[in-house]
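re: that chain from earlier
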Amino acid sequence: MSSSSETDYASILNTLGVKQPRRPKPTGERRSRLTIRAPPPRLDKERVRNNWYRIIRKARINLYKYDPIQKDYIRLMVLQPSLDRKADLHVSLLPVPITALDQCPYEALSYHWGESESENPVYVTSREHKGGEKMTDLSEVAVVAASRLYIKDNLYEALRHFRSEKHPTLLWADGICMDQGNAGELGAQIPHMAQIYSKANRVCIWLGTADVDRRTDRAMDFIGEVVKTHDIRDLIQADQAQNWRDLIFLVTCTWFSRRWIIQEIALAIEATVHCGSKVIDWRDFVDAISLFDLNFQDIRKLFADKSHEYNAITDLKPLGAKILVDELSNTFLRVANRSLFEPIKSLEVLVSTLAPFETSDPRDTIFALLNIAKETSSASAQRMLPAAEFSPPTPDYTKNLLEVYIEFLQWVISSSNSLDIICRHWALPERKSKAIMYEVLVTLPSWIKRVPESPYGQQSEGLNGRKNGDSFVGLPGAKSYNASHNMVPVVRFTPGQVKSPNSPMRSTTKPTRKPQAIPMRERESGNRRHTVQNGPVPPKSPPLSPIASSGPSTPTSPISKPFSQQESRVEQATMPIQTDSSMYVKGFILGTITWNTSRIPDGIIPQEALKKLGWSDEGQSEYYDVPDTVWRTLVADRCPDGKLPPSWYKRACLRCLVNDTPNGHIATKDILERSPPGIMQDYIKRVQAVTWNRVVFKAKEDGDAGTEKLVGIGPPFTERDDLVCILFGCSVPVIIRPWVSFKRSTSQTDGRRKPKDKENPSYYEFLGEAFVYGKMDGQAVSAMDRKLLEARTLEFCLK
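^ sequence. v structure.
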């Protein structure tokens, strides 16, 4: 094959007759208004599948086999024209070096794969038979069958939509241009996607075919009206309510839930949105969504006549379209011609902020964002920095989900010197069933928090309102608390098997001696003894290479050593196959839960919780004060922006308390529906963000045999006898639960139970983050001298 410098791809494409179709530009602003010409009518989706074709498709014999592709090459698809929209799709695949993409005027497709089976044939032109020629002999049927690919419904409809009537069209679509059955090729091609989408003339977003009620058609037309109007209030009228409903219907389609679309749009120089026969420029879509969000509360009132819509659509915050608009504008720095210059967000930030977006392969929780993160993007100068002890993740589809997640966590903890990542709900859950190139299913540990338990859940769950409270740890680099007083994390992971870097086979490393138990540390806490058992020492093997092997086993007290001089220590195994999901972390027990509410439903703060926090309702006609433990705890002692609360929060809380229900509860939703004054509204919204689906608890401080002194807010499944802990490197307290493992006689899996009095726990379940009044800014650590801190420091085995 000749080198890319010798190949004139422009001439090749000209010979093929490839021409770029015209796409709409963003709506401009003129001094005089012009009428908008109506677009062509929609073509209803027609499915042409007769029984004969079904039999042929399901035979699945002699399918097209991809030729191997060189490392720095990609495939572009030449889609042949047809005057008949119902005609079969014929394509040819053109290998092109990355360096020659500038010569190829192609468009890249962005679409949702969908859940349908791959039943739609695409005919790939081969040397033996060129697409469009008539078959003169039955023996040629085998030749056509040998060049047949099957794709899913949505891509099939997209290609029929983008096919020209007169000229071949040059496209890139992952479902055809990448061999989806080759894990090695996928791993090699994914890093090229940054250049594929950034060098494309245009990214074409395919939302799907129009719905039968024409709601999407009306929504696409309405976006043009929203952008062109000079006063948005003209469109916030009762007669426009259906148009706004249609817009919501459009932006809740499945495309907006896909994780891969994030990089596809972030990297695009130009983009257009297609739905059925309608098309608009992406920038018009962005402006329309921004205006919708800005005026959402007024627009929502238009739905008051339909209570189910009014109650369901309470917040645009979880809407995928809104997240895209908000986040992607600040993902890359761009030069004047809109070409990419430098990614500005870290991989940890992207994984945390874009968590609701989904993918059929949960390993893409990480892999789908590598091309737009500053540590891993090919456009980033940070990639040129000297290598750290832990390298950023790379796409590798031979690894199982647990391996991918643990490698990401190891890198985050070591590079950030923070353990906050284990408190965030960032991880997509494991698949329910195996699939091609996904043959190993794993059980995720409790310290990998899943997206379904995040504040608004997954995108596929729709606009159903808040599910859980906001995260206490906040986003990376913007923490609101400092409970561990700048102590750095001391963490180790236990690999059960090690795969040699030079061998594709997995081998078990056997211990050279019997495992020895690490000494346990015991102490009395009230009427119960807590013993932390760290488990067996991991078997020694050459690949193990700790980041730091020197220094004391107990972290140095911040009192005796400057924080900047402390080192984080995280043990790493070279390419481990994780069979043990244990994580060992150091910290100390702050207290033991003695009382807790049930999960707070729908923002209703129960009277009993208010009393436990310190509120006393004595039936007075007038109240003048409210304890700090009440008004500060209900908002986690912070504003939504993470700053300390203003003094008027106290007054707002008092007004809420005197407007409680007949049973003494605070019904936050009811208060907001009454459109209260500004200070009450702001306070109640913050209370909802903190308490939703969480529990209020009281705890006895560790080592204190006296009364309950700790109050706070914990994760939803907190129970009595759970432990409140400070983990080094974590900015907030956490709740963990001790468990004792035992062997079941009738099952291959171990059972577990709560430890009995003075019984040593085998491991701990990580329940989640907590707010503890008066312990959020390092008070628990600074109150101890170095000797006491060392005596109380324990290592917890989390599973």
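Residues 31-49, 127-146, 496-568, 571-578 have pLDDT under 50 and may be disordered.
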